[in-house]
């Protein structure tokens, strides 16, 4: 099979239960009695999702955070998690558990169980986590399929920090040490926002988290929803650290929009909800920005200072 896309396509014939959302969403959505259970599973693999040199506690944090990010995008509040641990060196494993404990406490997601295995000598390690959350009570669980013409496109936080943070962690980026440290922290310790996601759920049409890259994930909403989306490159929020290190020119913006590992929320909402969205974000102490618009039609277009900008060859990360 050619890769991630082909495999997931083939799996759709098996995962026909409506709760699977046709394997076209961030999480499964299972109605149980009057409640909605939201379920997701993400894995981190050495040398693919984290560096062997990353501190063990940060690897555990990332494992928890990438899963909480999927719950957040569905407006779900964490309920608990199960994880699978590949045994390693004793000290490293101990530090990993400290990070796991810290992250589970931070996101109020108790560890409920899991599994432990040993990989063959020398094999890279991987850690999987299944997160469960409770979906919103008074509205539908936001999907990738509900963007509508006239919607505004929004993102939370800033984009591209983790991508540069990887370069900082690899030592291939130069700049003021405090900025490099801030960028590396974005890479190692993503900060998803479950309270913001839950508060936004009633106000949005489509919502997902950005894991593979802003452009590719926006293209996924456009395709799933059967709409056209136009992104204004200059409206994409960039951190001061990213601007200071890169200068913030259009090439750096494009790199930020395609790097991935952001774990921010990407959502569309009707313009009449804009004031409530800004108030909601302020209450949650989070920043949000309008970066584009939804129209009838299909596909993704990029605009820079009013002029069309050709899409980069690579819109984001692909396995
Ligand atoms: N091995 C698998 N078995 C079943 N479903 C899968 C598998 N791999 C991916 N999926 C599903 O495919 C969809 C897209 O996957 P992915 O890109 O990993 O989602 P996300 O970015 O939200 O973590 C999701 O619905 C996910 O549950
Ligand atoms: C060592 C290393 N190289 C490259 C990356 C970049 N990267 C790897 S996977 C990924 C996308 C997110 O991972 P994925 O498994 O696709 O998560 P999902 O989309 O399922 O949430 C990115 C941006 C990284 N995080 N670490
Ligand atoms: Mg992915």
UniProtKB/TrEMBL annotation:
Binding-site positions, Mg(2+) 5: 212
EC number, as in UniProt: 2.7.4.16
Binding site for Mg(2+) 2: 42, 70
Biological or metabolic pathway of the protein: Cofactor biosynthesis; thiamine diphosphate biosynthesis; thiamine diphosphate from thiamine phosphate: step 1/1
Catalyzed reactions per annotation: thiamine phosphate + ATP = thiamine diphosphate + ADP
Pfam family, one: AIRS_C
Positions contributing to Mg(2+) 4 binding: 26, 40, 70
EC class name: transferase
Family matches, as HAMAP family: TMP_kinase
Family: Belongs to the thiamine-monophosphate kinase family.
Protein name stated in the entry: Thiamine-monophosphate kinase
Organism: Novosphingobium barchaimii LL02
């Amino acid at each position: 099979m050619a890769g991630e896309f082909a495999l997931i396509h083939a799996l759709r014939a098996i995962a026909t239960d409506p709760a699977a959302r046709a394997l076209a969403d961030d999480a499964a959505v299972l109605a149980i009695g009057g409640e909605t259970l939201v379920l997701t599973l993400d894995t981190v693999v050495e040398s693919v999702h984290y560096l062997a040199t990353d501190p063990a506690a940060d690897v555990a944090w990332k494992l928890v955070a990438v899963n909480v990010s999927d719950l957040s995008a569905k407006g779900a509040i964490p309920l608990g998690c199960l994880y699978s641990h590949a045994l390693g060196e004793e000290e490293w494993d101990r530090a990993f558990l400290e990070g796991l404990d810290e992250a589970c406490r931070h996101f109020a997601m108790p560890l409920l169980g899991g599994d432990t295995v040993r990989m063959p000598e020398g094999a890279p390690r991987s850690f999987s986590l299944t997160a469960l959350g409770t979906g919103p009570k008074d509205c539908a669980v936001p999907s990738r399929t509900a963007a509508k013409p006239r919607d505004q496109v929004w993102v939370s936080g800033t984009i591209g920090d983790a991508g540069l943070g990887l370069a900082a962690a690899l030592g291939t980026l130069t700049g003021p040490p405090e900025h490099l440290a801030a960028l590396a922290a974005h890479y190692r310790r993503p900060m998803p926002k479950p309270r913001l996601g839950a508060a936004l759920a009633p106000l949005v049409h489509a919502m997902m988290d950005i894991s593979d890259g802003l452009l590719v994930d926006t293209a996924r909403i456009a395709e799933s929803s059967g709409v056209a989306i136009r992104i204004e490159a200059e409206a994409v929020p960039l951190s001061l650290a990213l601007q200071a290190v890169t200068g913030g020119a259009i090439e750096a913006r494009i790199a930020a929009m395609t790097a991935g590992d952001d774990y921010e929320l990407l959502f569309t909402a009707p313009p009449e909800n804009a004031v409530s969205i800004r108030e909601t974000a302020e209450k949650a102490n989070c920043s949000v920005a309008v970066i584009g618009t939804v129209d009838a039609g299909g596909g993704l277009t990029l605009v820079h200072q009013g002029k069309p900008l050709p899409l980069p060859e690579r819109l984001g990360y692909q396995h």
